[in-house]
Structures are given as C-alpha cells and as structure tokens.
Amino acid sequence: MPTRDLTIAMVGSGGDGIITMGDMLAQAGAAVGLHVMKVEAYGPQIRGGESSCTVRISADPIFAQGDQVQVLVVFNWADFAQFRSEIVTALDAVVLYEATDETPRESIDLGSIESVRWVPVPFIELAKTSAGTTLAKNIVTLGILGELFNLPKEPVERAIRGKFTKKKAEVLEANLKGYVAGIEYAKTIEEHASGKRLQYTPGEPMLLMSGNELSAVAALHAGCRFFAGYPITPSSEVLHFLSQWMPKVGGYLVQTEDELAAIGAVIGGSFAGVKSMTATSGPGLALMTEMLGLAAMAEVPAVIIDVQRGGPSTGLPTKSEQSDLWQALWGSHGDAPRVVLAPADVEDCFHATVAAFNIAEEAQMPVIVLSDQFIAQRRETLSMLTLDHEVVGRQVPSAGDLREYKRYKDTRSGISPMSWPGMKGGEYQTNGLEHGEDGTPSSMHILHEKMNAKRYRKLRLVRDKYSFYRRYGTERADVGIICWGSSKGPVKEAVMRANGRGEKVSAFVPQLLYPFPYHEFTEYLKTVDNVIVMELSYSAQFYKYLRTFLDLPEARTFVFKRSGGRNLTVGEVEDKIRKVLDMSALRGEVLV
To answer: 76-113 pLDDT, tens per residue?
Structure first.
C-alpha cells in the first residue's frame, strides 16, 4: 500500500550537498501543494563537518518533524554516528547507503538493524560515470529518491536548473545527467520501496519559508526601517535576509561590532522616530540586558528577536532549547517592564513579529519575540494568503499636547505621546535616570513610585488587547497539556491522535507570555481534570513560571521537562498522556 506521509533523512559530510538535497526536495513538494517540513542539524563547528537534513512530505497537514524516518540516506556511516540519537528509523525503514562503505552493520546503532531494508547504492560511481564528478552524488540521489518513492520529479529538475543556472552550461548539463542516471538506477531496485511510495493529488503551490525569514518579512511589513545586529547562530538569517531587502524599501541596516552596540543602535533609531529591531540568541540577549532597562526607563519602542539555543554559555549553538525564558522575563536590574511573545510555528513568526512592533509602538517599551532554533531555521509550507496582519503606528503628540509637552505625562493608561528630534514643541530631556513627567531627573522616592506605576500600567493594555492563545482538543478533558513555543507542533499532533482514539485530551498554548494572561489560563484549567506542563528546559523554567501566577493542583499536575538538543517528539507527548490517563502508573512520581 502507498503512503500519504513520508519522512526522509539524509546524512553526510561538508561538501556532500546534504542541505541542498533537502532544499530541493522541500521546494519540489511545495511546488505541487504538498505539506512539507524540513529541519537541519549540524555539529558546533564553524566550517565543515557532518550535517543531516530531514524532510517530512505529506498529502495531509503536518505539525511536527516526524518521530521516525521511513527513508534514510547515508553517504558515510562515520557521519551518521554524530546524529544517531536524533534520527530514529522506523522498523521497516529503507536505508540507502554508499556501497563502498564496508562498516559492519552490527556497529551501526540503528536500533532496528534486523528489520530495516538495507540497500547498498553506488552513489560515488554513479556520479562519476554520469556527471563526471563525485560532487554530483547528491543530485544522483535526488533522482533515486524521486523514482523510488514517487516524489515530484519535474519540480526537482526545475530546482536543479535553478541551482545551477548561473554556472557554466556544462555544469548544469552534467548535473542533469546525474539526475537522470539516478532515476534509471532506481528502476533496478524499486522492489525495496514497497509500501513507501507517496500517494497524493497535486494541488496549488505553497510558500516554503523558515521562521527567521518570516520574522524578517514581518519586520518589513510592520514598517521597520532600521535593523542593527551582530551575527549569531541561530538568528543570523534575519540579518542576512534584511541586508538584501532593507535597502530596497528605503531602510537602513548596520552590522555592529557586538550585541551591546546593536541594542544601543536600535534604541537610538527608535528614539529618532524609526521603527527599529535587532535579532540575537541567548548569549547576545544577556549582553543586551542593561540596555533593555534603558528602553524601559526612557519608554522607547524596541523589538528584540531571541532565537533560543541550548545553553548556558556557548552551549549548543545549532540545537534548540526553551531555556531563555527566565532571562527574557526577568533579565534586568531594577523593575524594567517588557513584553514577551512566543511564536509557536513558522507562520506564527510572521504574526508574532508584527504584533511585537504593534505592542512596542503602542506601549512604548521593549518587546522580546522568544523564538527558538527549531522553528526559526526549519522550512515549512504555508499559504501566502495567511501573511496579513494589521499594523499600528506610533502615538504622535497632538497640537494640544505640544503646547505644554510632557513626554512622560502620567496618563490613565500610562501611555504618553512620543515626539522625535526636530519636532517643534516636542523637545524633552531623557536618559537612563528616573525622571518627572517632563523628563527632568529626580531621585525622590514618591516620584520613583509614581513613574514605576505609570510604566507598569501600560502592561494592562497589552494583556487585555493581545492575550492570544491556541486551544486544541476536546472542550472538557481528562488530560490538559500546557506548553509554549515550538513544543506546540508535537503536542497538537499528539492531541489530535488521542482525540482520534476517543480520549478526552486538550492543549493550551499561549503566545503572550508576559504580561501573564491570567484569565485565559484560569478559564482553561476549569475544563481539565489533570494537567501536564511540557517544555524543553532542564530546570523546568516554564512550570515554575506558571506557579508564580497559578495555583496548579499538585496532586493533578505532572511535569515533562528535559534538556534541548533534540526536538520534542509526538511519541514523548503520547507517552506522557498515556501515563496520566492511567493514574496508577503515576503514583509516587516526584514533581519538579
């Protein structure tokens, strides 16, 4: 029987074109309307080394990267050893490996060496004889995969032409010969693909983008015209994308010498009247902490995208984790209000980023978009029609405000119109010192209390207007899962499977993390008998954060937490659901 859902993993060394293969497969799937999710994995080295790429292609909507791989391509078993804890093969997986690699099967930690279908393939020889170079073995492999598993072959060929169109004609011709050679060779081993051929009906093309790319697109859509940043994995694609597109819309981009300079430049650009943003990861956000306090004190809009990775210190630069939460929420000296949003998938990176600009402009404070490597660097299909979001402009002083302008006027909402340099009548004094309504510095206790209250009062507007969340599953549930960020995908898929089995399971996923959406959480908790909190943080940061606001019932609250470095799987979520449904299996379990 054919399949409607196929997950393919590819492993090789630097220069093997593993990522190029994944890109072309993903592009081909998107071109015929298939649902695609592509993820990459690297070692921590700056250049070279092993890499892997996993592409899930489905005729039906998908929300996670796929727990098990049905097809595995390995050019070198030594490279595969670096990813064996991340790539889990299905029991009947088809394993295509380089025929000249004589690594003993018993030394290959697949976990299912007895039942998988081992298929030696002369990738190197096929590339040499057809294209004249071993560099074409990835293109040969694309032909093999397309023919064996009924993947869209013509779109792959178009992707190959697009890839090599700027090369010499003979380079393109050689690669096309390699592609055809792969297709022809696959016909000699087609019996190995039994039950793995993809069944689908071609549809309208879909957009294929990464979370970082959509964050950059969202910034432009929101009216951002100044970006300052320092390259840091896994956020650098935001900088790369905007370096090409920001000048085209009349904006400016600066690659600064470090993250301190980046956030300083963003605050300066925003103070001058231009919507401004930076993007970084955990180590960079740590360096920005003091300047975030300045933005809060001076009430200057600023958007900061933090693409989380494994920590602490340099940690796991190329792997995902959800352990920057406390830093984003509380990283400050003094009481420094900020807003924290958490996109939950690739498309959400667009909407969360536009919302961040809207909130920053309305509330005049820093807004952190807490993304992570899994959603920021993976590519996913979506409809272009979903990329629309209302944009809010800056609160400009009226003529009446400018007669006796008080930049920090103590209003009921806490928001006071912000002028910019050169605006007649809008001159005011500002810095990092506490100040009165006109900006004059003061260290009086009563004034400090008053202005703290003003700054924090703005969070009420944000909480009431932007408390966006997702809810999945049954209206009333025996088990309710609370998670955030990229954990949403595996949790949603697990909840849908549980509901399909007749189990009463639901999930609650907030996008607004701070200010805390207390009302929405408490209403959800009324609908569930047991609660599971799920996160990729060894210290259970999310669970402990929830406990600061919610009285979670200890006897009915269970915690799934672990370190990052490996993405959350649907199987892990399902396992926890089963255990909670069978309460006897949980007696004596120690909570965090």
So the answer is: 999 998 888 889 999 999 999 999 998 998 888 787 77
The whole-number pLDDT of residue 47 equals: 59
Q: Quick count: other Cβ atoms within 10 Å of Cβ 109? A: 10
10 Å CB burial of residue 470 (0-12, 13-18, 19+) is: middle
Beta-strand pair 528-535/557-561: parallel
Are the C-beta atoms of residues 477 and 505 closer than 8 Å to each other? yes
Q: What is the pLDDT of residue 82?
A: 85
**What's the mean pLDDT when you consider all of the chain?**
94
Query: Domain residue spans in the chain?
Result: 5-204, 209-386, 399-466, 469-586
d(CA 158, CA 179): 11
Whether 153 has a pLDDT exceeding 60, the answer reads: yes
Q: Give CA–CA dist 173/317, Å, rounded.
A: 38
Backbone angles phi, psi at 310, to 5 degrees: -65, 140
Global pTM exceeds 0.90: yes
Integer Cα distance of 269 and 421 in angstroms:
11
In one-letter notation, the amino acid at residue 515 is: P
Nearest to 378 by CA among 93, 87, 56: 56
Region class of 473: left (phi > 0), else alpha (psi between -120 and 50), else beta: left
Burial 484-502 (b: 16+ CB within 10 A, else e): bbbbbbbbbbbbbebbeee
What 3-state DSSP class applies to 197?
A: coil
Superfamily of domain 5-204, CATH level 4: Pyruvate-ferredoxin oxidoreductase, PFOR, domain III (3.40.920.10)
Tens digit of each residue's pLDDT (9 = 90 or more) over 487-523 = 999 999 999 999 999 999 999 999 999 999 999 999 9
Q: Are 276 and 228 in contact (CB under 8 A)?
A: yes
Identity of residue 248:
K
